[in-house]
Specification:
- The chain has 255 residues and is mostly helical.
- The N and C termini lie far apart (73 Å).
- It is globular and about 55 Å long.
- The chain is built from ten helices and two strands.
- It has one domain: Four Helix Bundle (Hemerythrin (Met), subunit A) (Up-down Bundle), CATH 1.20.120.1760.
- Helix 2 runs antiparallel to helix 3, helix 3 runs antiparallel to helix 7 and helix 4 packs parallel to helix 7.
Length: 255
């Protein structure tokens, strides 16, 4: 006997499955984050950084693909948040710790706990940032701005610095204070109320001026020439744009 189209039981049976395409990209984010952890524990920080930036690409694609194919789901939202926490929270914090923050043990400052406490603060901030994003979905965070620095951008800022330092051949122990300050600052920005542009209002299916293609081409050329410095510089500018715009808005209101 066939199920009637309006039968609630039939609807529940159809909803038991998951959409494959966007969740494949989310799985790619999870895989890249896990690989970054493995590479960092082996001291291969360049490979770990590349894996984190690859995770950013798959994280961007899963949402775009879900919206273009109309395959959004509650499962996909939760799965994406868990993958982001692994890649941009746990993996990024561990990279910073293994590269530099573990050197606090040699100083014996607060029993050597300051390094891993800073990494934990960063990871916990990423978890709080993702949780807040989920509960405010459809409101401010889904429009033109993000509330707080997005976790992929925070990971790009932190891991990008590690990538640049390692590419220069610098010892993480010599960069203890900069890495510590950047780790704490990135975590604080994630849980702050500072607004950041989301760029979600860009419509890829609309016509754009020809110069836009030239800008994209130039960006590809710059990243290809020097990936560590260009990517770190881009995320540094984006992270600083939130506080800078907040100060500008405060100054305009005061005047």
């Amino acid at each position: 006997m066939s199920e009637e189209p309006g039968n609630p039981e039939s609807e529940r049976q159809r909803r038991r499955g998951i959409y494959l395409l966007p969740n494949l990209f989310t799985t790619g984010t999870l895989f890249a984050g896990f690989y970054a952890i493995i590479a960092a524990t082996q001291g291969r920080f360049n490979a770990a950084a590349v894996a984190i930036f690859a995770a950013m690409l798959t994280d961007m694609l899963d949402g775009r693909v879900a919206r273009l194919t109309n395959t959004q789901s509650d499962f996909g939202i939760q799965y994406d948040s868990l993958a982001d926490l692994v890649a941009f929270g746990l993996a990024a914090g561990l990279i910073a710790y293994l590269f530099s923050l573990q050197s606090f043990e040699a100083i014996n400052l607060i029993g050597g706990k300051l390094g891993w406490l800073a990494a934990f603060f960063y990871m916990a901030s990423a978890a709080l940032r993702l949780a807040r994003f989920n509960v405010t979905r459809g409101g401010l965070s889904e429009k033109k701005v993000f509330l707080g620095l997005p976790s992929p951008a925070a990971a790009g800022l932190l891991v990008g610095f590690v990538w640049v330092a390692h590419d220069f051949g610098l010892d993480g122990a010599d960069l203890l204070l900069p890495v510590f300050a950047l780790t704490v600052a990135a975590g604080a920005l994630m849980v702050s109320n500072i607004r950041y542009q989301s760029f979600k209002d860009l419509n890829l299916r609309e016509r754009v001026p020809f110069t836009y293609i030239l800008v994209v081409l130039l960006a590809f050329v710059l990243v290809t020439l020097d990936p560590p410095r260009v990517l770190f510089g881009a995320f540094l500018v984006y992270a600083a744009s939130g506080p800078a715009l907040a100060v500008a808005r405060w100054w305009r209101r005061r005047r």
